[in-house]
Amino acid sequence: MDDVKRALRADLRERRQTLSAAARDSAGAGVHQQLDALAAAHHVRSLSCFLSTNAEPDTREFVREAVRRGIRVLLPVTRVDGLLDWAVATEDGEIAEGLFGLPEPVGELLGPIAVNDVDLMIVPAAAVDRRGMRLGWGRGYFDKTIGSMQKCPPVYAVVYDSEILDAVPTDVHDQPVDGVVTPTRTLSLRAR
């Protein structure tokens, strides 16, 4: 299973690297619009969201705009023990390279349970299948977080349109998501 996942991740990573800057910009604008509509539909006052890398559909402008509108946004910060701490996003928040070279906020850290109070979770993914199973990037941070929550809010993964697949390989610890956000649409895949 690990080899199958690793091969699929490598293929998806390579496809993302071949996208033009114009395609990435267009995708980011589309994701921003879709995430705005999703947050409004769920009457969100607080959410968690990841800071996108250059290869991912852009979430950073959505985060900035949500903060401007008064939504409390928690951003993940990786820990060596496999858990996530959280930091509250600010309009002019400093960003640094985190544990795995990913963009993470600099500032006061809240513990892993801080995410228990959000109305919506926006998570990264390599791909999502039509059953709602998410293929992450292999470290398990979001699977552990989602799996440990007593009352998990709706969870939506952000991917490119071509990354919604018929099936993704899964292990026992893999956690499903409730929906997926792409540059052109938002799909609800399952109800919690």
UniProtKB/TrEMBL annotation:
<dbReference type="Pfam" id="PF01812">
    <property type="entry name" value="5-FTHF_cyc-lig"/>
</dbReference>
<keyword id="KW-0547">Nucleotide-binding</keyword>
<dbReference type="InterPro" id="IPR037171">
    <property type="entry name" value="NagB/RpiA_transferase-like"/>
</dbReference>
<dbReference type="InterPro" id="IPR024185">
    <property type="entry name" value="FTHF_cligase-like_sf"/>
</dbReference>
<keyword id="KW-0479">Metal-binding</keyword>
<comment type="similarity">
    <text>Belongs to the 5-formyltetrahydrofolate cyclo-ligase family.</text>
</comment>
<dbReference type="InterPro" id="IPR002698">
    <property type="entry name" value="FTHF_cligase"/>
</dbReference>
<keyword id="KW-0067">ATP-binding</keyword>
<protein>
    <recommendedName>
        <fullName>5-formyltetrahydrofolate cyclo-ligase</fullName>
        <ecNumber>6.3.3.2</ecNumber>
    </recommendedName>
</protein>
<keyword id="KW-0460">Magnesium</keyword>
